[in-house]
Structure formats: structure tokens, C-alpha cells
Amino acid sequence: MTSAISTQALTKQYGSLTALDAFDLEVSQGSIFGLLGPNGAGKTTLIRILTTLMRPTSGTAFVEGLDTAAHSQEIRRLIGVVPQENSLDRYLTARENLELHARLHGMPGADSRKRIDELLELFGLSGRQKDFPDTFSGGMQRRLVVARALIHQPRILFLDEPTTGLDPQSRHAVWDYVKSISGSMTIFLTTHYLEEADQLCERIAIMDHGRLITLGSVAELKERLTGGALYEVEFGGAAEAFAATLGELSCIRNLTLNGNKATIELEHWECLSAMVAALAGNEIRRISLKERTLEEVFISLTGKGVRE
Ligand SMILES: Nc1ncnc2c1ncn2[C@@H]1O[C@H](COP(=O)(O)OP(=O)(O)OP(=O)(O)O)[C@@H](O)[C@H]1O
């Protein structure tokens, strides 16, 4: 099957600065794919090349099997783009913004009217279609831009930081809409919000300094980081009393004590029964598995937080 996106040794130089450095990526069709990276990692540069707004210095990029260097017109018909800035026409109503986009894509009037009605309904904007975007909340404007990008039924939707600047409620609303349209197309999104990638994406690439650092499902990335399992044990008394017992277990990789709680990193999950056996007879109030966050994966791989 043709990949939705495929890049080979894709490189972009801005003078002496290498924004993309021999970047190789394959994104399969129909998936929600997330690209994460700290500021300046090269995410927007990659999106600009894939959406044919910019040419690479060297290397190749294919979208739906078409070379971006030779087929920009065809590719633009196959993709929808939600840029970082909302870029709505403030002198047109919400509906007119969508109508303009449909005309730019050469859609016949009857088809576009039906499609616009559907999208306004889907994105909860039917009641506000005659209003101007300036009167909308940030979340509503964002939903309108996503609706606009979907008018011509693209095969790939590019979302460049779709929820930056939105309040948590609007962010969750945009996530719900993105989930509701997924399945019918490939969605490629960049984000600074690890929770967003965790919530939405089936596969994630982490990049920094123009290079791909790692690629996989959220679960795979978390497992790659940790290898071992992390448990929290809450005792009836001070956890220090159990430090010696726990210290005797060779499969404990790390142990942190805090009050009546011990955070224990095991070499592998099979070690759990040995730990429970060693602690038998003592008052244990709770044993819980601590989930690793994507934030921890990100920091361990890039050495910095997403916003640094
Ligand atoms: N037109 C340009 N001219 C010169 N340098 C540029 C240009 N555009 C981007 N850069 C530089 O290239 C690098 C990659 O930038 P890019 O915008 O692709 O990163 P990003 O991952 O999208 O960052 P952010 O998360 O801040 O949007 C940065 O160091 C940036 O300063």
C-alpha cells in the first residue's frame, strides 16, 4: 500500500542552519500520526515541505505517492491544511469563509452547499454560520478552520499545533472533532502538548535538531523508555522499615522512600511476585502500578521539556 507520507533524507538548510537533517519518515494511510518536538525542532519546516509551500534543499518527499517537487497542484487537491494561525477572512461570515474555500477548490455549487451544511453541523457551528469569525471564541474559530480544511474531502489533513492557545475545554472539544473525523483520512499533526499526542495519536515521531529521534505507538515509546515496571507500595507504617527487605531483592532497579510510601522500579514485571513474597506478613495498604507519562519519554529523549 502507498504510504500517505514518505520522506527520504529530506534536508532543509536556511543559510548555515540545518532545519531538517536527512529526515526519513513513513506514515501509513488512515492513521492519526503525531509529530512532537521542542521549539525549533523543524516541525513547521517539514509541514511546509509536505504541503508544497517550500522546497527542500535536498532529499525527497512523497505525499500519497506523489513527489512534492513535481506534483504540487495534484497534492494540494489531496490535502487539507490547518496552519498555526487561523487565517480566516474576517470580512466574510463563517459560511462565506467555507464557500470561498469550496470555490477555490472548484466544487460545484450544489455539492458545496451540501458539504458546508454537513460540516457546520458536525463542528457545532450551524447556529453561528451567518456570524463573522471575530465574534467567535478561539475554540470556535479553530473548529471553523478545521471545517474549512475538510471541504474538499482531503485524503490527508495536516494540523499544525491545532489547539495552541485554547483553553482546556475548547482543546477537548477540538480533540473530539478530530477523533470523529479520523478513520476516513490520514491525520498528521504537530503539537507541543504531549497529552494531545497521547490522546489522539496512534503513532508518534519525536524529532529534535531536524532529526528523527524515535518513532512508535505511545505504548511502545513508554516501554522503550522504561523497560522496567514502576510500582508504588503504601505501607501501614514508615516505608524506611522495609528498605532493607526490599534492598535484598536483586531485581529492584531503583527504590525511593517517602513517608509510608515506597516507589519501586523493577527490572521486569516478573519480579513483582518476588517483591510481594518478600513483603508478606507486613501491613500493605496499596500496591499500584505507576503509568509513565509521555512527558517523561520526551524529556528522557530530548533532554528538555516541550516548551523549552
Ligand atoms: N525562514 C526561515 N529562515 C531562517 N531560519 C528559519 C526559517 N524558518 C525556520 N527557521 C529556523 O529553522 C529551525 C526550525 O524551525 P521550525 O519553525 O521548522 O521549527 P518548529 O519545530 O516548527 O518550531 P516551533 O515549535 O517553535 O514552531 C529553527 O531554528 C528556526 O529558527
Can you summarize this structure?
With 308 residues, this protein is of the alpha/beta class.
Cα distance spanning the termini: 38 Å
What structural class is derived from the secondary structure elements? alpha/beta
Query: Helix proportion of residues, in percent?
Result: 25-40%
Instruction: Give the integer mean of the pLDDT values.
Output: 88
**Strand-and-helix sequence, N→C?**
EEEHEEHEHHHEHEHEEHEHEEHEH
Strand content: 25-35%
Radius of gyration using CA atoms only: 24 Å
Shape descriptor = elongated
Biggest sheet character: 6 strands, mixed
Number of helices: 11
Ligand species? adenosine-5'-triphosphate
Unreliable stretches, pLDDT < 50, 5 or more residues? none
Strand order of the largest sheet: 6-7-8-3-9-10
Number of strands: 14
Q: What is the strand and helix layout of this fold?
A:
Layout: E1 5-14, E2 17-27, E3 32-36, H1 43-50, E4 58-63, E5 66-67, H2 72-78, E6 79-82, H3 94-104, H4 109-122, H5 138-150, E7 156-160, H6 168-181, E8 186-191, H7 194-200, E9 203-208, E10 211-216, H8 218-226, E11 229-235, H9 243-247, E12 252-258, E13 261-266, H10 271-279, E14 284-289, H11 294-302
Parallel strand pairs: 3-8, 3-9, 6-7, 7-8
Antiparallel strand pairs: 1-2, 1-4, 4-5, 9-10, 11-13, 11-14, 12-13
This protein binds adenosine-5'-triphosphate.
Adenosine-5'-triphosphate binds next to β2 and α1.
